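Budget justification note: compute hours in this period were largely spent on complex prediction jobs such as the one shown. Inputs:
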Amino acid sequence: MTVFISGGSKSGKSALAEDLAVKLSGGKALYYVATMVPKDSEDAVRVEKHRLARRGKGFETLECPKLVSRCAEGRPQGTFLLDSVTALLANMMFAEDGSVDENCSARASEELLALAALAADSVFVSDFIYADAEEYEELTEAFRRELALTDRALAKAADLVIEVCCGQYMIHKGEMPA
Amino acid sequence: MDLIIGGAFQGKLEYAKEKYGLAESDIFRCGGGADIDASFRCVYGLEDYVKSCLKEGKEPALDFRPDAVLIGREIFSGVVPVDPEIRRFREGYGRYLQKLAARCDTVTRIFCGLPQRIK
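Corresponding output:
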């Protein structure tokens, strides 16, 4: 089963995603695809918080900032949690050499859908950053557009699509696994 | 009248095109000020239209064709904008959407390309 989760920041997306991934794995191999490349001490603290929250849940962490489909190669029985699509897109849009790919959603979607197709089960977490009145400059708008296009590709392919708000969830597609 | 709302880049127009079989010639794209042509089946970008109306001190229209498909962006989930003009726009547009939604037969919210009927 492929699950796509989105919602505002600090809404409880990661906790729900972890619980769902544990449930779907049914005791079989469980992987956490870590996409974020910590850039400063603030990022490092956030990574540590998430790492602590996952401790004891049985995840094996796979560091993979870009070509995430490779994580699933040779692990066909695995359940994969990818948190977050936002971080993956940032890695793809802004390369280490300083170049910017303003049309990276096709590349990102391809990697993510390939991971979903190879995995027994997969859970993807993204951020809903589309409903404020702010007027952003061109590059931020491009990032919002590319992330939205990636989200939509995942939501289309997913069996279950969930919006999280205040730790509560709304189902837009499919049904929670029993 | 049917209202379609949702955040930026969520696929509102794509949904409307498919659901109502709209051609490009059926769509009036707002963004050219406070005057719109309500004879079009679909009016897209209500946020731009209402923003212009508020700037020019005009009341935005609430009357459209009975089979009108009206599309607007949700912009209400950020912090209160510092800029007073954007603040007034957010408030005026929000109140407008409430009145318009009350007149519409259906209201559909698009989330990541997926529709959810909320009226």
